[in-house]
Amino acid sequence: MRIVLVGPPGAGKGTQAAFLAKNLGIPHISTGDLFRANISRQTELGKLAKSYMDKGELVPDEVTIAMAKDRMEQPDAEHGFLLDGFPRNVSQAEALDEMLSTEGMKLDAVLDLEVPEDEVVRRIAGRRICRNDSSHVFHVSYKMPKKEGVCDVCGGELYQRDDDSEDTVRTRLEVYHTQTEPIIDYYKAQGLVVTIPALGKVEEVTARAMEALSREDA
Length: 218
Hints:
Elements: E1 2-6, H1 13-24, E2 28-30, H2 31-40, H3 44-54, H4 61-72, E3 81-84, H5 90-102, E4 109-114, H6 117-125, E5 127-130, E6 137-139, E7 158-159, H7 166-180, H8 182-188, E8 193-197, H9 202-217
Helix pairs in contact: 1-9, 2-3, 2-4, 4-5, 6-7
């Protein structure tokens, strides 16, 4: 299957993408991973992307599209993929359609993870990260440390990242509504959108998505 995963920041796209890709036996293609891989390998596209990022500018669509195209042409993506973070706007969605059409392919589904805005703010603004190891993540409501402000794993100081503050989260949501949300209407016109309520345990959301995909595939 060829699937696009969309949803606001804090919807759990990365977590769901990893579970779904494993269950479906297809690669999880994340925009963030693409950028990191190309920059670390110092590919031409990676160098180009880094030149914009170093100036604090958005990477142009054509660079992102070229990275995604290169990744989707790898052998492991021959029988399908799950895209996470791409396309990010209607121009990228149109480019993806054109890419697939050239190869005689099409998308099977667009999974829209639906989360109320207040829950998105609660999820992200409540995160606390360990200064010693950023993989140690806690939450003021869902995963509280035994001692406030102290990492259970290594005793490091827990802090809130600048981009996790409530004001920043609301700004990120505005960007999502303006730039990315329009692709949902774009794909609805093609009859591809499947809306998945993304509240609840991770495995419950995955089960809803798998059930919806099985209906789409029937």
